[in-house]
Amino acid sequence: MQHATLPHPVPTPLSQPFWDGCRRRQITLQRCDDCGRFRFYPCEACPYCRSRDCTWTEIDARGTVYSWIIVRRSVDAVWQARAPYIAGIIELDIQKGLLIPAIVIDCPVDSVRAGMPVEVTFEQTDASTVVPRWRPVS
Amino acid sequence: MNPKPMAAIAGIGWTEYSRKSGRTVEALALEACWNAINDAGLDAADIDGLVSYSLGDSVTTAVIATDLALPQLNHFADFAAGGNMACGAVLQAAMAVATGQASHVLVYRALNGASGVRYGGAEFSRLLAEHGVHSDSEPQFLDTAGITMPAQHFALLCRRHMIKHGTTNRDLAAVAMTCRQHAIDNPRAMMRKPMTESDYDKSPWIAEPFHVVDCCLQSDGACALLITSPERARDLAKPPVSILAGILGASPSNRGAMWGNFSPDHAECYGRYLGDRLFRQAGIERADLSFAQIYDCFTYSVIGQMEGFGLIEPGEAGDFFRSGHGSIGGRLPINTAGGLLSEAYIHGLNHVVEATSQLRGEAGKRQIRDAELGLVTAGGATSTGSALILGR
Known about the structure:
Largest sheet of chain B: 9 strands, mixed
Largest sheet of chain A: 5 strands, antiparallel
Oligomer: heterodimer
Strand content of chain A: 35-45%
Helix content of chain B: 25-40%
CATH architecture of the largest domain in chain A: Beta Barrel
Radius of gyration of chain B: 19 Å
Strand order of the largest sheet of chain B: 3-2-4-7-1-8-11-10-9
Number of strands of chain A: 8
Number of helices of chain B: 14
Number of strands of chain B: 11
CATH topology of chain B: Peroxisomal Thiolase, Chain A, domain 1
Helix content of chain A: under 10%
Structural class of chain A: mainly beta
Order of helices and strands of chain B: EHEHEHEHHHHHEEEHEHEHHHHEE
Shape of chain A: globular
Shape of chain B: globular
Number of domains of chain A: 2
């Protein structure tokens, strides 16, 4: 496998807690201290109520396939080596409209469907990097 | 009644569109600018404003101002932006003219998009990040999820549309084939071989549901437009084309660049929020349009924007194109030069050039009879974009 050469996330102070959470095998998202809503991507303010106060919170990372593609040809050698693969967007169960980009694994590429239930799993791509993957709920 | 136009297009210019120009971007930009100046019957010394947009793959307005030895530059803008700025750049020039900032403004886009920096590749994420189009928080999540190429981003939007509205690859094929049919009669176009549905099906999958032919071309070339006041334009060499209305905007909460992660639906198009204002400002109805040039970085983008701007109902696009409504001679001809899919990818500015040619009656074999009003859009049917309504 080409794990060693997969892209590393380059965390910023804003996103570091997400990646720290991945190393604990947890999806951790910002939750607004004022309106209680989760958000993703990480933002310095709540896009729903403008509050700048939030708490990083571990979630029950289950969701459904909101959109997906089958990557069959990539100009990026490291991803071409994995092709075909399913890249998608997951809508998380904890909040309607809460979307996160994803790779869906453990699923034949032609059998992915809209609304398919998925849960998080994690892949260690190098010594210090753990990234989320999503797999069908069995 | 139409309101007074805010400005006019008095000159257009372009270079050859190719896969390997063998020239600098500076040379391409300059040739297109000179062609626009000459087309208007002006002198370089008349130019006092310059507007362009790029993601670091072009030359700045300072370079062109120097190459044209401009006596004075009264207004310039170099936008770090993608194709969503194509109409916005023209709008910027029109606003500069309308507010007295400058009298004759050149808008150009130049790139070696095939032989130099290619937008279609994995470099795209880096370009967005380095030029501040993405905030610093987004690329890390996309790159690690294997979403690195524009085709992948837009295929995700397209799939969402398929889920919601039952759109199929047959519908995408109808868009691709219509654009190709128009390119056949365009001497500038890079792709002039007819495309059948079987050609479409045989094109390799790249990011399913997209075949390679669902994606726009990559091109070397440049085009330019000369913007001035409506009064001044009447005295120049060519029939003026009026800029009746423009928008440059976004859906709410459009952070996320390639999709509105905080929008009510991630496949929602900016046109849904801004379209009504655009038509109201122009003082026209959608049915008044003679044609529309719809930004077509991908086949799906045409569908998403036609719906967003209210030209068709959701899910109608396939039938619209298969029935010939989008063809020259149809109810609303779309992308009459072949678009970014079949003419060239000059980052959308070539759509404004074609609209101008049509309204002047200079479009040759692809001329729409009595073309009076045209819509041009710029944006891939994401949450951000720009658009113009032009009139004869």
